[in-house]
Design goal:
Blueprint (H helix, E strand, L loop, with lengths): L9 H17 L73 H12 L3 E8 L2 E7 L5 E7 L4 E9 L3 H13 L4 H11 L4 E8 L6 E8 L2 E8 L5 E3 L1
Antiparallel strand pairs: 1-2, 1-5, 2-3, 3-4, 5-6, 6-7, 7-8
Length: about 230
């Protein structure tokens, strides 16, 4: 007995084809790899090159220069001999006693000879003014403690009449500055010398000596020929 085949409709064939396609897609076979987006591609940045500056050669150590110390003298313009000297370096500013004969001798030696016509100062420093044989004046500062000149000698200007008078008085005087100072301080007990200046005419030279005692000053006149003293 023969079977009668049923005609297959077009719709059924189409359904089978669609089903096979869907099943194939779900199995994952043959699926292409996803194409990476442009954001995933990075261009490697070049590694920056560090430039190393050449090292400078070490500078040689600078040497410390010691400036030269200028020597004292008239050319320095700082001391013309009228001050109190440059100090004696001994730390003694006010000695108990002063040897005025030694101080005078230092002034005369610095001047190259002559006669002391003025002696003034205090403590350790004494300014000595010397008149030469022609009356030319030379000034120095002498340290009584060290027994030497600490400033000078410096020439002192004077006119022709003054030079002549100084030379004449120096020749006529028989009492020197040291003796006049000693006579004056002995005349006023307990006093100390401030200054002694030779003056007066050639025929009667005289020392005018200023001393101090108990904070007060006294004047003593000493005859440069006889040594007689008068205090006022």
């Amino acid at each position: 007995m023969s079977r009668r085949l049923r005609p297959v409709s077009t719709a059924s064939i189409l359904l089978v084809a669609v089903t096979a396609t869907v099943l194939t897609g779900c199995s994952g076979g043959g699926a292409p790899d996803p194409t990476p987006s442009a954001s995933h591609h990075r261009t490697a940045s070049p590694t920056p090159t560090r430039s190393v500056a050449p090292s400078s050669p070490a500078s040689p150590p600078s040497s410390t220069s010691v400036p030269a110390v200028p020597s004292a003298g008239p050319s320095a313009g700082a001391d013309d001999g009228t001050g109190t000297g440059t100090g004696n370096g001994s730390g003694v500013d006010d000695p108990e006693t002063v040897d005025f004969a030694a101080v005078s001798a230092q002034g005369v030696a610095a001047a190259g000879g002559g006669t002391v016509i003025s002696l003034a100062g205090s403590g350790d420093n004494w300014t000595v003014l010397v008149a030469g044989p022609d009356g030319s004046r030379t000034q120095s500062v002498v340290s009584a403690t060290l027994g030497r000149v600490t400033s000078g000698p410096f020439p002192r200007d004077s006119d022709a009449p003054t030079k002549a008078a100084d030379a004449a008085r120096a020749t006529a005087a028989t009492v020197d500055a040291a003796a006049a100072a000693s006579t004056a301080t002995n005349t006023v007990s307990g006093s100390r010398l401030v200054s002694a200046v030779l003056g007066g005419p050639e025929s009667a030279p005289v020392w005018t000596v200023l001393v101090t005692v108990d904070g007060a000053q006294r004047t003593v006149t000493v005859d440069a020929r006889t040594g007689a003293a008068t205090a006022s």
